[in-house]
């Protein structure tokens, strides 16, 4: 009887230490108790999810943005909601890149786009250009004023060169990262 009571007490104390917080809060998963849940309480991701398309003559860019709910992060033993994204680009019916439908696994490591913190009209993703293997970029999706069906996409390189150790007083000739992207940039997407 005593062991059952102790087990129940441990379970209840673990349950009460875990917490549910809104994705808009400044909490960091590593600082939260195990079992916590960073939740999209107000459905802030929902307006961004779906299929978004840009067409220009023979060029077509498609983004598929999906919400993932209550995903267990094994590193911190916490749950969270976030969005993942995949994209395709064709020109004159030739597929340049297509990451859509390559996996149904919600693990963000298997998708070229990931975001965990929306704002009212904007969602900023980490972005990987899989063709030219640029994986430290940003994709910003922002609704046009007064619209819920059109967003502007801006792709950016993160500032500066990272991971290069320069000896004190020395210099190193490191080529700048490619500022271009495989897919068109600064485009208007329409929800399908």
Strand order of the largest sheet: 3-4-5-7-8-9-10-11
Number of helices: 1
Largest sheet, strands/sense/barrel: 8 strands, antiparallel, barrel
Estimated radius of gyration: 21 Å
C-alpha geometry: globular
Extract low-pLDDT stretches. Answer: 1-16
Mean pLDDT over the full residue set: 85
| Tally of DSSP β-strands | 11
Strand content: 35-45%
**Residue share in helix:** under 10%
Report how far the terminal alpha carbons are from each other. Answer: 60 Å
* Broad structural category: mainly beta
Order of helices and strands: HEEEEEEEEEEE
Can you describe this structure?
- This protein has 192 residues and is mainly β.
- The chain has one helix and eleven strands, in the order αβββββββββββ.
- The protein has an eight-stranded antiparallel β-barrel.
- Strand 4 and strand 5 form a beta hairpin.
- Residues 1-16 have low confidence and may be disordered.
What are the salient characteristics of this protein?
192 residues; mainly beta; eight-stranded antiparallel beta barrel; disordered N terminus
Give a short summary of the structure:
The chain is mainly β. It has one helix at residues 2-17; strands spanning 20-22, 37-39, 50-56, 59-73, 78-91, 94-98, 113-115, 122-129, 134-143, 150-157, 187-191. Strands 3-4-5-7-8-9-10-11 form an eight-stranded antiparallel β-barrel.
């Amino acid at each position: 009887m005593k062991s059952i009571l102790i087990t129940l007490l441990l379970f209840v104390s673990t349950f009460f230490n875990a917490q549910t917080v809104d994705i808009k809060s400044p909490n960091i998963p590593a600082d939260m108790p195990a079992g916590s849940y960073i939740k999209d309480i107000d459905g802030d991701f929902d307006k961004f999810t779906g299929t978004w398309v840009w067409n220009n003559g023979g060029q077509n860019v498609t983004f598929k943005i999906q919400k993932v709910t209550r995903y267990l992060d094994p590193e911190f033993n916490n749950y969270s909601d976030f969005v993942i994204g995949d994209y395709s680009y064709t020109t004159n019916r030739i597929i340049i890149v297509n990451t859509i439908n390559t996996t149904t696994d919600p693990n963000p490591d298997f998708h070229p786009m990931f975001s965990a913190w929306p704002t009212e009209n904007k969602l900023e993703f980490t972005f990987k250009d899989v063709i030219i293997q640029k994986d430290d970029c940003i994709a910003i999706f922002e609704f046009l004023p007064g619209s819920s069906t059109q967003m502007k996409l801006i792709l950016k390189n993160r500032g500066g060169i990272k991971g290069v150790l320069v000896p004190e007083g020395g210099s190193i000739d490191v080529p700048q990262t490619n500022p271009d992207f495989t897919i068109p940039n600064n485009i208007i997407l329409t929800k399908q």
